[in-house]
Automatic annotation (TrEMBL):
Pfam families: DUF386. Signal peptide: none annotated. This is YhcH/YjgK/YiaL family protein. SUPFAM superfamilies: Clavaminate synthase-like (SSF51197). It comes from Enterocloster alcoholdehydrogenati. NCBIfam families: YhcH/YjgK/YiaL family protein.
């Protein structure tokens, strides 16, 4: 997992060390007004690499109501374009977690795990401009409410094919 903010003074240095498709995804997030983009799912090209753009209007929820997820074919670049705050949970996939729903062989490329209260889970604060890059081994739980109050968010997800980064 990689975490940062497009407004960070080190953005260019942080971006430069990444594979080209992830560099393109982060620059797309920085240069595109996604807070005012129509919601939906869109096919895009990142310097010749086909990717998927999801523009989602969501409301954050208590952690216990959300399922941990992973993807195997795509790297998720998640970005908070507006609203919030939001928190995101994460932990490393060690292959021992109980599957709740497996949709990896569908166009959604997603697997949900059962919530396990004994799993050590990290948390990051997502404020406007914050991005998190989740690789296929990164279990993640997006859209967690910060504190006791739910908040509307404009969540952007750019799905970059894993094989384009190898």
């Amino acid at each position: 997992m990689i975490y940062g903010n497009i407004n960070n003074e080190f953005f260019e240095q942080q971006t430069a060390i990444l594979p080209k498709p992830l560099q393109s995804a982060l620059r797309f997030l920085k240069e595109t007004d996604l807070a005012n983009h129509e919601p939906g799912k869109f096919d895009i090209s990142l310097n010749g690499v086909p990717a998927i753009l999801q523009v989602l209007d969501l409301t954050t929820s208590p952690r216990e109501t959300l399922r941990p997820e992973i993807h195997r074919k795509n790297i998720d670049v998640q970005f908070l374009a507006a609203g919030g705050p939001e928190e995101a949970g994460f932990y490393s996939d060690n292959g021992s977690y109980q599957t709740d729903e497996d949709l990896l062989d569908t166009p959604r490329d997603i697997l949900f795990y059962h919530n396990d209260p004994d799993t050590a889970e990290g948390r990051i604060a997502m404020n406007v401009g914050t991005y998190a890059i989740y690789f296929p081994w990164d279990v993640h739980i997006p859209a967690i409410q910060s504190g006791s109050t739910a908040a509307p968010i404009r969540k952007i997800v750019v799905k970059v094919p894993m094989d384009a980064c190898l």
